[in-house]
Amino acid sequence: MPGMVLFGRRWAIASDDLVFPGFFELVVRVLWWIGILTLYLMHRGKLDCAGGALLSSYLIVLMILLAVVICIVSAIMCVSMRGTICNPGPRKSMSKLLYIRLALFFPEMVWASLGAAWVADGVQCDRTVVNGIIATVVVSWIIIAATVVSIIIVFDPLGGKMAPYSSAGPSHLDSHDSSQLLNGLKTAATSVWETRIKLLCCCIGKDDHTRVAFSSTAELFSTYFSDTDLVPSDIAAGLALLHQQQDNIRNNQEPTQVVSHAPGSSQEADLDAELENCHHYMQFAAAAYGWPLYIYRNPLTGLCRIGGDCCRSRTTDYDLVGGDQLNCHFGSILHTTGLQYRDFIHVSFHDKVYELPFIVALDHRKESVVVAVRGTMSLQDVLTDLSAESEVLDVECEVQDRLAHKGISQAARYVYRRLINDGILSQAFSIAPEYRLVIVGHSLGGGAAALLATMLRATYPQVRCYAFSPPRGLWSKALHEYSQSFIVSLVLGKDVIPRLSVTNLEDLKRRILRVVAHCNKPKYKILLHGLWYELFGGNPNFPTELDGGDQEVLTQPLLGEQSLLTRWSPAYSFSSDSPLDSSPKYPPLYPPGRIIHLQEEGALGRFGCCSAAQYSAKWSHEAEFSKILIGPKMLTDHMPDILMRALDSLVSDRAACVSCPAQGVSGVDVA
């Protein structure tokens, strides 16, 4: 529901968010009260000492205060359990209860201060009693400090401006005044987001690229959240409901007819060849991450294997390779790829906003010059990812619509300049002129690799690109179709990144609004059921629609979302496009090349850790990745080590089934 309005400002917490904090505080307070009562009853005879009367009074008054607080917290928790996310009516008394609860902190602070002063005076009483009272004073201050931290966390810097906007909306204003108010709020929101991002990234420098990235990221966030009044728990509840709704729909769907091809078909042969290429080149994409990924993949032996390279001074072997900031990276690259020092042309781990690390090597097995671009590994890379507005890609091709993701385009342009202007590719092909150029990368590196391959295609017509788990929001539909002949993308399971674009995020927001608005259960039940479902599975048929006669009101488009939207301008309707949809900075963007989708077969538990997984592979259309799927593996499926294990398993299984074609076909579906 919309954030609560207290003290004349909006806060980033709703009136139904206090069930779990209230329960936690209630348990602590009750245990604390029981402990003080026990201390008083068992040792009150020992308070006949100098200052003992003060300590006795302290304990009695503290127990009374705690009893009152326990009653108020119980009332807050009970009221917070009422109603639904979009029906705060049963919780209208919450603000009064919170005012009373906050007022009780003043006597608590005063009494805790007095207790600390009395104990500090050196009361000559039984040591057990004194230690017990010291413990109560410490607990008092811990709870007070935790409350202050909680208030800081839920403080909304825009709350003063949003309070009247959240409660009634400026429907009384004319179109001009409403638009002016919205623009003012957006400007203020952009400034707040930019300040937050600068604080988070305070250690990464202040060059021009960084400042531009700060502004781009702040504008993206402020625009995305400008038309909603959701608190974080609303989003968590919406994601939980969406996951269950999504699984329920999948379980009730009729099995789709899958077109399988005979072992000799060209599509299957092409898929086999590309899977083998992906399996091979994924080693280079992983090597580009350097020693952190290598240690992560080999936690017991990795440090021992490359530790000598970290401590050893630069040898003549290193001088064969151009590059900078190698540190421990070179040893991990050698172990990951299996190549020798002399096979590397250039290794760079220079890392700034819009400037990605990359390696260039000679792959004699595939007779190729491999350029591997690193994926997201630092805050600088995150800023590159989040610079999501579009710009025209400067390439020599017949495509008219050449819009691309600005941050990734800038990063690919940096690598392009290094490869061409520094003569890195010329050096590589002077050694192996008959080799072909292959560009690979994972995640952000996969998107940059696709753009880089497109930039280099005019000079190297035979270039190939393998993009592993690339972002969906990369470039225009025309460039997506143009890249089909020389780029292959590989996606694992429900990986969120190949489904991630500004357009898909906007669709996710709409779906969250709809499912939250149409759920007739209180938020705490949604979150508890969602947590249980994520951990242990179960029945996904959790109610997401209103019951009984209220069902017919859902025929009105997005009716329930009215209380969760803040764009009340007369020019705004609930069926109209959002700010992101209408912005020319964020047009719909698409993934690169043809797409191979790896999917896990069989049910192996919620997190797939119980036994070795088996995978199938198929060619997929980009439309299959037009929605973000919610699930416990939406993040883990993106990890490069998980993708490498899936490829290892799939390629070995397919190789084992070469002699049994009837079984081999089952793992290959062509959409």
What does this structure look like?
This protein has 671 residues and is α/β, with parallel strands linked by helices. Among the domains are: 5-154; 270-501 and 591-603 and 612-658, 3-Layer(aba) Sandwich (Rossmann fold), CATH 3.40.50.1820. 51% of the residues lie in helices and 10% in strands. It contains 24 helices and 14 strands. The strands form three sheets. The protein has a ten-stranded mixed sheet with strand order 3-4-5-6-9-10-11-12-13-14, with helices on both faces. Strands 1-2 form a two-stranded antiparallel sheet. A two-stranded antiparallel ribbon has the order 7-8. Helix 18 (444-456) links the parallel strand 9 (436-442) and strand 10 (464-468). The longest helix has 29 residues, at 52-80. The radius of gyration is 30 Å and the shape is elongated. Mean pLDDT is 82; it is low at 167-173, 257-264, 546-560, 567-576 and 662-668.
Mean pLDDT: 82
Instruction: Give start-end ranges of low-pLDDT stretches.
Output: 167-173, 257-264, 546-560, 567-576, 662-668
Secondary-structure arrangement, i.e. CATH architecture of one domain: 3-Layer(aba) Sandwich
Beta strand count? 14
Which CATH C-level class of one domain is it? Alpha Beta
Top keywords for this entry?
elongated; two-stranded antiparallel ribbon; ten-stranded mixed β-sheet; 671 residues; alpha/beta; 51% helix; EC 3.1.1.3; membrane; Rossmann fold; triacylglycerol lipase activity
Q: Could you outline the blueprint of secondary structure elements for this entry?
A:
Layout: E1 5-6, E2 9-10, H1 19-43, H2 52-80, H3 94-103, H4 105-120, H5 127-154, H6 159-167, H7 175-200, H8 208-224, H9 232-252, H10 266-287, H11 291-297, H12 302-311, H13 316-319, E3 322-324, H14 329-337, E4 344-348, E5 358-363, E6 368-373, H15 379-386, E7 390-392, E8 403-405, H16 406-421, H17 424-431, E9 436-442, H18 444-456, E10 464-468, H19 477-482, E11 487-492, H20 502-517, H21 523-536, H22 579-582, E12 594-601, E13 614-620, H23 640-656, H24 661-664, E14 668-670
Parallel strand pairs: 3-4, 6-9, 9-10, 10-11, 11-12, 13-14
Antiparallel strand pairs: 1-2, 4-5, 5-6, 7-8, 12-13
